[in-house]
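User:
Hi there, any thoughts?
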Amino acid sequence: MINTKSINSKSINTQSINTKSINTKPINTRSAPRRELSFHCTGCLKEELARIEDAHRKGTLTHTGNWTAGENLDHVAKAWEFAIDGFPSEVKVPWFIRLIASTMKGRMTSGKTLPAGFKMGKGGESFLPTPGTTVEAGLGRLRAVVDRLDAGTKCTKPSPAFGALTHDQWMRLNLGHAQLHLGFVSYP
């Protein structure tokens, strides 16, 4: 079940937020308001994508982080594509980060929402969304990868940080990742 009414610590004033990136100063996403979501399967995610599309069509879609709604959708899709198709060769994670990540693997693959405010290191540019991604393009990309998963495609590629993950671990990791980023996308 998806809890779309709960807000993390602060309520969102949707009248003051636009769907375009309007801030020149980065927002601290650790403290930015966001909805608390819970996806236990791709079906739950698809339901949320339908709500996002409906809000976009009505002109009521907003965001509270540094990325637009379309950019958040694009970023979430990229993470899943990497788990299926493999990571770009420029993505290199230093040994000490891999060591730290190994201690966090269980938490990160539990299905819980991933922590906000993570800073990408060198080589992390591949994970960034395509700047200016529209909501339509972001929805299309994310739906395409979810359709692949629903058709039986498995996440089998090793993670640069965590190493080998099972398909189920990848699914929980990426659902938790989607919970985080789609939590910054809001609608009434």
User: Anything to note?
Assistant: The CA atoms of residues 41 and 127 lie 23 Å apart. Residues 1-23 have pLDDT under 50 and may be disordered. The beta strands are 62-63, 185-186. Helices lie at 42-58, 69-85, 95-108, 135-150, 167-182.
